């Protein structure tokens, strides 16, 4: 489904992502972990068109998407969440999600966007009531809203950026189970970024580890968790 080769991103003289290659098969959840600053969000920004790669190729369903605009990437079926939720606070929860649906559905149909919003809100367990306000949401609610916005764009591939950060342990377990359910119920393919291993390792099929912009390990969670380079990177974190 996704084939990334030799991906590089430089900011001036600083190399944030340094020649990363990986593949994602339809229906799988790939975990992408690495310490803060290791380049995870920068990779998501290139996959979702927010940033153009300095070098490398990103093929989605056989077509090159490196450097393509965020809007056409959403229309081709890649949806993402942002690590730091920034909802429109004056709009209701429903309106935030419907707006994402409107933007993401190529047809720009209001009825389709409303239907997508209703379905996405039900999936993440947020109220479908059209007037419920964003202000009442805590950290876990805001993460659910991020997820609902991405789902409302109708993605085939979902990029989830730190869906667990800022949550307590119980909320983390619930959020992890939710991603697992979304994958199973919708047959969705997911790349899930976290800086900690934690519950992610329970859900993902494969995991890839980044350090200083480079891939240092990849494989089954059980094997990667014991990889000496991974243990070293995660010592003391
Ligand atoms: P992660 O998501 O793994 O915590 P990021 O991908 O956000 O890491 O950042 C990787 C590195 O690139 C960090 O050192 C960060 O400061 C740097 N970086 C990210 N975005 C920019 C940017 N727009 N300009 C300059 N440096 C950036
Ligand atoms: Mg990040």
Automatic annotation (TrEMBL):
Residues 2-237 form the ABC transporter domain. CDD domains: ABC_Mj1267_LivG_branched. Gene3D superfamilies: P-loop containing nucleotide triphosphate hydrolases. It holds the Pfam family ABC_tran. Keywords: ATP-binding, Nucleotide-binding, Transport. InterPro entries: AAA+_ATPase, ABC_AA/LPS_Transport, ABC_transporter-like_ATP-bd, BCA_ABC_TP_C, P-loop_NTPase. The keyword ATP-binding applies. One of its GO terms (molecular function) is ATP binding. GO terms for cellular component: plasma membrane. PANTHER family: ABC TRANSPORTER ATP-BINDING PROTEIN, CONSERVED COMPONENT OF ABC TRANSPORTER FOR NATURAL AMINO ACIDS-RELATED. This is ABC transporter ATP-binding protein.
């Amino acid at each position: 489904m996704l084939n990334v080769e030799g991906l590089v991103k430089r900011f001036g003289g600083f190399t944030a992502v340094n020649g990363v290659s990986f593949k994602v098969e339809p229906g799988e959840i790939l975990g992408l972990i690495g310490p803060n600053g290791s380049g995870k969000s920068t990779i998501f920004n290139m996959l979702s068109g927010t940033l153009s790669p300095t070098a490398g190729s990103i093929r989605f369903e056989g077509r090159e998407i490196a450097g393509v605009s965020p809007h056409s990437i959403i229309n081709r079926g890649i949806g993402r969440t942002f690590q730091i939720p920034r909802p429109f606070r004056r709009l209701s929860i429903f309106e935030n999600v419907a707006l994402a649906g409107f933007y993401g559905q190529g047809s720009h149909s209001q009825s389709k966007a409303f239907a997508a919003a209703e379905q996405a809100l039900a999936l993440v367990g947020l109220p479908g009531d059209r007037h419920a306000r964003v202000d009442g949401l805590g950290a876990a609610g805001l993460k659910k809203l991020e997820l609902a916005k991405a789902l409302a764009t109708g993605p085939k591939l979902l990029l989830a950026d730190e869906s667990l950060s800022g949550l307590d342990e119980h909320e983390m377990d619930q959020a992890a189970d939710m991603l697992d359910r979304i994958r199973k119920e919708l047959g969705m393919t997911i790349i899930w970024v976290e800086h900690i291993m934690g519950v992610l390792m329970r859900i993902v099929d494969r995991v890839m580890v980044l350090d200083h912009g480079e891939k240092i390990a990849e494989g089954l969670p059980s094997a990667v968790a014991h990889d000496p380079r991974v243990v070293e990177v995660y010592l003391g974190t």
